[in-house]
Amino acid sequence: MGILRVLGRVSSINVRKVLWTCEELGIDYVQEDWGAEFASTRTPEFLTFNPNGLVPVIESDDGILWESNTICRYLASKYDRSDLLPSNPWSRALVERWMDWQATELNGAWRGAFLGLVRRMSAYADPLVIAASARDWNGKMEILEKQIILAGPFVAGKTFTLADIVLGLSVNRWLSTPIERSNLPAIVDYFERLSTRPAFKRGAYDAMP
């Protein structure tokens, strides 16, 4: 079996999802910097990997794959880690529900505040855009707070799953962005639990939002 190739810069939260998953699986991989100030994702070479020109992309024995949450699901299934992604259809759906929520609902909420305050992108410099995004972001995090209290100690229940990887990185981003945050003690405790995991520590995934 060849070594997994992960294309994408570590500053990308979506790349970090894949890297954290690899660390949890304990598999060999090589990470290559693509995107932003690194190798361009708009070249013909890269666009043959992902026509969207986005990271991450992986190259495995099975072929090329893109979309971060899909990659995480694929890796957990390939290495038979039903603890991370259950084989039972209902249990799996409870995990995938929160992975999809992260990609659709939560990501859209933080965009204005994060890109305006952390990435300093001019298109998001309007204080009204930032304020509206911060309110929406806090609202989504309040939903997550209630879920952790209800199901905890992890997002989908008593055990750590892929949902905690994708949402844990999002929580780190929320805690690291200079906005006025809602008081959500369950989320703070949740992130502290995640940050004690050896795979999390190896990747130092709290080093950047």
UniProtKB/TrEMBL annotation:
InterPro entries found in the cross-reference section: Glutathione-S-Trfase_C-like (IPR010987), Glutathione-S-Trfase_C_sf (IPR036282), Glutathione_S-Trfase (IPR040079), Glutathione_S-Trfase_N (IPR004045), Thioredoxin-like_sf (IPR036249)
Sorted UniProt keywords: Transferase
Source superkingdom: Bacteria
E.C. number: 2.5.1.18
Record Pfam families: GST_N_2
PROSITE patterns for the chain: GST_CTER, GST_NTER
Single GO MF descriptor: glutathione transferase activity
Domain GST N-terminal: 2-83
Enzyme class, UniProt record, top EC level: transferase
Domain GST C-terminal positions: 88-209
Designated name of the protein: Glutathione S-transferase
